[in-house]
Predict the 3D structure of the following.
Amino acid sequence: MLGGCCCFDGRSSDEGSDLDPVLLVSGMGGSILQTKKKSFGLQTRVWVRLLLADLEFRQKLWSLYNPETGYTESLDDSTEIVVPEDDYGLYAIDILDPSVFVKLIHLAEVYHFHDMIDMLIGCGYKKGTTLFGYGYDFRQSIRIDKLMDGLKEKLEVAYKASGGRKVNIISHSMGGLLVMSFMSLNNDVRTFLLVACNNHYWFTCIKKCLHLFLHAAFNMQLIECPSVYEMLPNPEFQWKKQPEIQVWQKQTKDGDIFVNLESYGPMENVALFEEALRHNELTYDGKKVALPFNLSILKWATGTRQILNKAQLPTGISFYNIFGTSCDTPFDVCYGSETSAIEDLSEVCHTMPQYSYVDGDGTVPAESAKAE
């Protein structure tokens, strides 16, 4: 796909009409989310926002998984979560907090696809003709109908707007897995380019899945998000060394106290999550809401893994995988220490872990990113 861009083959931006359309697909946390009142159209950005973030999140974005529909649904029945479609879908994945303050200080952490959008425009791509974005509710399953239908609709728009050209997709992180799910059922794609995709899902399970499961207000909400369960490590992937969650645990037997280092690999970590989250809850509108590790979501996520394990690249589609190396990337995680052991596994929810590191881009281990 990059060969079709003037930045890589020397063509001038005046030749933009000859370019195949590009669709940018974001990953985990890479789309603006807004709440919309069902009674009228007022919308409020709840992700990403720096000012009043925790208040807005607690009031409007906390949700529970509905096993009958497969969706995570807002606790506030009067609102729904929407992704803005402005600027041909690019607004939602450009600057994730487009407030005046953030733009004034140019906070790089929320300038998501911004630089790539600018680069592609400089290469001759035109918004609404050859350049589009797809933001989505990243809390939902990567194979749920709403996300699949939204991606198909966006591809159809790009296909028609460009005069019937097949579409090139550039996806980031979890967006690559979403596209994999889609492509096994459709042939509307010409080129598929992955950027820092966690192909066997231990992505930063350490810093994201695990940390999201076990810590703080934002993370309480993600316990009910199918996509987070779908990012748990693939037990069928043949790692050179299996990633592990380690816990220094204090145990008592016959009045004697022992400290053991317990290890949980991809096959055993569910038992750890269940035990650590067995008393987990949040308070919403004055009521206690239980948030244990959700086995219904885990069952759904297992189905997603089976689909991804069988996914094949359709004939005629060019595929490129770009990933970073030479950065320390979290791999194993350890809670407690020999001198400060964990007595009850629920304590890991309030314990800062230590990490071991491998080669990668800082978030995705290279071994996972380069796997086919």
In short: The chain has twelve helices and 16 strands. The first strand starts at residue 22 and ends at 25. Residues 201-294+322-367 form one domain. The two ends are 19 Å apart (CA to CA).
